[in-house]
SIS domain-containing protein
Amino acid sequence: MNLADPSLITALDKGQALESLKSLPNQIDQAWKEASEIKFPSEYKSAKNIVIAGMGGSIYGGRIVKSLYDTAANSKVPICIANGYSLPGFVDKNTLVILSSYSGTTEETLECGKQAIEKGALITGVTSGGLLGSFLTEKNLPAYIFDPQYNPSSQPRMGGGYMIIGLIAILAKLGYIPVGEEEIKNIVSFLKKKSDALLPDVNSNSNKAKQIALKYKDRIPVTIAADFLEGAAHAIRNPIHETAKQFGLYFTIPELNHHLLEGLKFPEKAHQLLYFVFIESALYHERNQKRLTLTKDIVAKNDYETLSLRLEAPSALAQTMELIQLGSWISFYLAILNGIDPSPVPWVDYFKKNLS
């Protein structure tokens, strides 16, 4: 497949993934404005801990919030992820439980909702509707139930602006994390400018997403990131699977320094298959910046091809969204190179059908 012909790309993109990716800044703008208007009872501002329940593309926001803000400097209370059928045992009336499901039909998240009611927790949610939307409405719970007008693909992973910023807006509104309207406006403006250079009519010589997708073709990309970008690294790995139908991995620094460095020798075929991508940021902890540089050196000394991606946005949240935008476009072009429509997820659909 030739990435130089926009008409061929459009012909393959039957699910309108392109329009969804172009609309990320609009998703962010809509989600921030709407979720910031939600009215919460006063007790929602006094939780002692926060649990975000969700799966797959619907928990991108939770993972990102945790890696960005679950520190003494950035969050007033601990933030935990419930990535399955059960809430943590500590959940009680002092816990804020946020139910996150793009479609509103995620059975694990719905089960967590039932448990949250039983435990008397403070409950809110982020969803486009479905059973979760009905649950939140019937229980008269304050929540962000959005109209995904800027995600024509209807795929959760391509509606990240709603799920990520909807969640962030709720937590900011309640005073748990330090995010304001000015920062969101700046992010929207920054991403709009970045998007112009990633569109199909920009040739590969000037289009970073196309360049990287060509590198990923027939390889296994291994993304390496650190501290506040851990959630974003997870979020850009998933669409390699779902959008491009290709295997990908991610690891985080400093954790990988305690095991992965000794796993680079065998099998010999791995040296041709694995392609290491190092996400660089001037905002990392200074020790993690040194670790990243040294890790890249060790990987290269073990005869693996590497690529460094330096993020340019001015804040941690902005860099997170910068990486998600770029990663989404890379997966889109990789799907095109693989000759497939980027939107459908037939094996996930098959699994859900046979599980029901």
